[in-house]
Amino acid sequence: MASQDGIFKIKGTLGGVTFYKTKDGHLAREKGGIDKKRMAKDPAFKRTRENGSEFGRAGTYGKYLRSAFRPMLNNTSDKRVVSRLVKELMTITKTDTVNARGERTPVAGNFELLRGFEFNSNGLLSNTLYVPYNATIDRASGAASIELPELVPEQMISAPAGTTHFKIVAGASEVDFQAGNSLTAYTGTAEIPWNSDAMAALTLDLELTAASTLPLVLLLGVEFYQEINGVFYMLNNGSFNALAIVNLNK
C-alpha cells in the first residue's frame, strides 16, 4: 500500500493500480485478487469461504440489531459503530461450540459478551454516568427495567460544555436474527436540569412479549440538551450522547 503525493489526487483504477481515499489520506494499491469462480469452488479456499460466510453473518446480525434500535441510534452513534459492532460479533461467533466452522452464529456463542457494547466511542456511557444502576430482563413476563439511585447531576453525570439539560433513555427489543424482524419498546425521562439539585431515584420500565423465545436486548443512554428561549436543542447533534447495551438474554 502506497500513499499518493502531489497536488492532484486520483480516484479509481489506472494502469493496474487502484487509487482511493481513506481516513488516513489518499492511498494507492496494485489491483489484484483471486478469480471469483475459483474462490467459490477451489478446495484450497475452503477456509476462506468459511470465514467469509461467518463475517457476512456477523454483518447481518449487526444490521438487524442496529435496525431494532434505529430511533435511539439516530441520536447516538459514531462513524465506526458498524465496523466495531461487526468485530465484536465476530469475536462472539468464534465462541459458538455447537455449529460447524462456517455455520457458526453469534447467538449460538457467548452472546453475553455483547453486554457493555458502546454505540458511541465519543461518548461512552461508562464515562458519562457515574452511579450504579440495575438493569434487569424477565423473560417470563416480558418486563425489562433499569433502576437508578438518587443522584446529583453535576456530580454523577459527566456532561459536555454547553449542557443545560439531559435525558435518561432506555430501549428493550426482542430481535429475530433469522427473519430480520424486531419488536422494540422505548422510554425515557423529560429534560432534566443539569445542576446541583438532587434527582430522585428513577425506574424506567419497558414491556416486551411475555415468554418470548427470541434474544432480548436492553439499552441505556444519556442524551444532552441545551435550552435556548424555552426550546431544547440536542447538543452538538448528539455527538456526545451515550448509549450502551446493559443487559441481554438469548
Identify the notable features of this structure and list them briefly.
20% helix; 32% strand; 250 residues; four-stranded antiparallel beta sheet; alpha+beta; six-stranded antiparallel beta sheet; 5 helices; 13 strands
Question: What report would you give on this structure?
Answer:
The chain has 250 residues and is α+β, with helices and mostly antiparallel strands. The chain is 20% helix and 32% strand. It is globular, with a radius of gyration of 22 Å.
Percent in strands: 25-35%
Q: Name the helicity range.
A: 10-25%
| Measured distance between first and last alpha carbons | 42 Å
Number of strand segments: 13
**Strand count, sense and closure of the main sheet?**
6 strands, antiparallel
> What is the H/E order?
EEEEHHHHEEHEEEEEEE
Please identify the structural class as seen in this structure: alpha+beta
- Rounded mean pLDDT score: 87
SSE topology:
Layout: E1 2-3, E2 12-14, E3 17-22, E4 25-30, H1 36-41, H2 46-68, H3 70-73, H4 81-93, E5 134-138, E6 143-148, H5 153-156, E7 165-176, E8 181-188, E9 192-193, E10 202-207, E11 216-228, E12 231-234, E13 242-249
Antiparallel strand pairs: 1-4, 2-3, 3-4, 5-6, 6-10, 7-8, 7-9, 7-11, 11-12, 11-13
Helix pairs in contact: 2-4
Briefly, what is this?
By secondary structure, this protein is an alpha+beta fold.
